[in-house]
């Protein structure tokens, strides 16, 4: 995932903190060897254009201020609020991270594939509810096996809500000690916990609402340097496939979970996402009292939702890209379990489950 320009408003509706320019920009260039170029540019630009960027961002914040427009339908709803098992989700994160580097096709990646499939088997999903989207990606670093794993939970309503999270880690960092606890680990884990939540009434029972599909995506990360052709291998493939077979038309909403376990949780309002869906997520967060963790910063983010956004699917990226002060833990060996919190998994996990509930009512 990467950002072209991250706008950091000094004031927002939520009145969250300003992000002053820090004298650490050259550090980014050092770390930057392993970072997407666009992220480095973002940081450099943020340092040199702070004043005008803030002015632009403030204007954007006014027009894009999160609203509570979705709240009326929520107000008449007496359903109990969702609650994931955050200790269990955190334990999944720990176990996934313990596999070590998990880039496309390596041995740890294969172990993780078996771990995910084993979990789905334990959830008593029938054979036809678990699908593979496997292919070979031709990249600037050679050919890699890519495998998206899909678990389908059928619903009573016609239409599908898709939740995606990548499980691969960064190939260029394979020998650096990078284990991707947050970046790769947390997204894998929250989907495993969602599988527990969604199996609900047991095998064969439909959920009361839209079908929900969980997709563990592969090859989200670049193998050399982030670009339109070196990134999002798994989702570019599956979006094209779903376009051809008509699946995309059935998707009511699609949400990507990425880097969601930072103990200091601050979900970015991504301007590549559908505003109405971001507003619905915010309304869900408000119902749970978690809204202060959403949308203090905003900007266009490139992540697994893009191949679907480009094809007109209503999509949202749920990501915290302020991972450590000035995002210093992102794509570094410091992305480890001690930076994470079960509470953050709970905040995001419950909020997106509640968003699914609100979508079911539409
Ligand atoms: Zn990443």
Backbone shape: globular
> Total helix count?
11
The proportion of strand residues reads: 15-25%
Small-molecule binders here are: zinc ion
Arithmetic mean pLDDT: 83
By secondary-structure content and strand pairing, the structural class works out as: alpha/beta
Helical content band: 25-40%
- Extract low-pLDDT stretches: 4-73
Provide the spatial order of strands within the biggest beta sheet.
Answer: 2-3-5-4-6-10
Q: What is the makeup of the main sheet?
A: 6 strands, mixed
Intertermini distance:
30 Å
Rg over CA atoms? 19 Å
Order of helices and strands: EHHHHHHEEEHEHEEHEEHEH
Total strands? 10
A few lines on this structure:
This protein has 362 residues and is of the alpha/beta class.
Description:
Strands 2-3-5-4-6-10 form a six-stranded mixed sheet, with helices on both faces. The longest helix is centred in the middle third of the chain and has 19 residues, at 181-199. Helix 1 (25-31) packs antiparallel against helix 2 (37-48), helix 5 (86-98) crosses helix 11 (342-360) and helix 9 crosses helix 11. 38% of the residues lie in helices and 17% in strands. The protein is built from eleven helices and ten strands. The protein is globular, with a radius of gyration of 19 Å. The two termini are 30 Å apart. The protein binds zinc ion.
